[in-house]
Amino acid sequence: MRFWLTGAAGGAAIFAAAFAWSYASQASAGAGGFDALNTGRPLAALGSERQCERYGGLPARWRDDPKAGMVHLHGGAFVFGSTRGYPDERPAGDGNARVSGFWIDQHDVTIAQFAAFVAATGYVTEAEKQGGAAVFHVPTREEMNARDLAWWSWVNGATWRHPQGPGSNVDGKGNLPVTLVTLHDALAYAHWLGRDLPTEAEWEYAGKAGHQDASLDAAPADANGKPAANYWQGVFPVLNTAEDGHAGLAPVGCYAANDFRLYDMIGNAWEWTRDAYSGPHQSHTNGDTFAVAPAGRRHDTAMVIKGGSYLCSRDYCVRYRASSREQQEADLAASHIGFRTVLRDPA
């Protein structure tokens, strides 16, 4: 069965059948990519609210081990894309793809990790240079009536240190994903550690964790039906019922890991990849944060982001799935986009 969507409302109706599936019903066959190179390594003790709240944001042996906070995947074949989602997710050909082995962060790069990078290098992010960034807020009725995408605003002074603009800060929030960083910022951090950003294929291989069934296109839920990732429940963008426990960004690792021991591959924050966006573009204004950027600002290369965020909902985005993909200008920082890094095996 192939679904062809024309808008957010269509997406909500068409995905309803697929959402009857639960991530909890996945078979355990996907564990094979998590290989013996992980034996004896200190993995993050995360996966519950209590554990993520207590986590400081720095992996064990941070800066002592060049692979601190990472797991190794031996690589292999997988189906790249989905026939059940949006047109821009359709597999090319039969969809069969292969990736080589690589290490990947267990969780999104945290504010604590990015702060350590900035302290060591003096790095200045693009949002700091540009004087602001795209920030989400719950709009009023008046704002909704006045303009499209009323939930996005360009906020002068918004940066990774001041996510809501001047007066806000990240004190005591080192365990949250760092956001308001651009592709260049993410690459600078990755290169500091001798790493890179994942390709779209590497990211999706890690996100699918060895699975190929319809559960990959279902709303993430546990065995009791509770949302098993941080995405929007309720009516977007005015009412988030927070059934998943979080109305905004959550600390990393509050939800169970996938079968490759990776946290938050779905929801919480979109993640940068190193691939430029190509292929069909979904015409339902899913993000389009560039629309609120200052007039006259040049448009940079559109890059692929993966995994959805806390803003994806049944009635709007429906992109909290491993095959989901969206575009974001490489030099435009936004409050719902973070990243994780990879270290590839020698050729």
TrEMBL record:
Protein name: Formylglycine-generating enzyme required for sulfatase activity
Signal sequence residues: 1-20
Limits of the Sulfatase-modifying factor enzyme-like domain: 68-342
Domain of life: Bacteria
Organism from which the protein derives: Paraburkholderia tropica
InterPro entries, A to Z: CTDL_fold, Sulfatase_Mod_Factor_Kinase, SUMF_dom, SUMF_sf
Keywords, alphabetical: Signal
Keyword Signal among record annotations: yes
Keyword match Glycoprotein: no
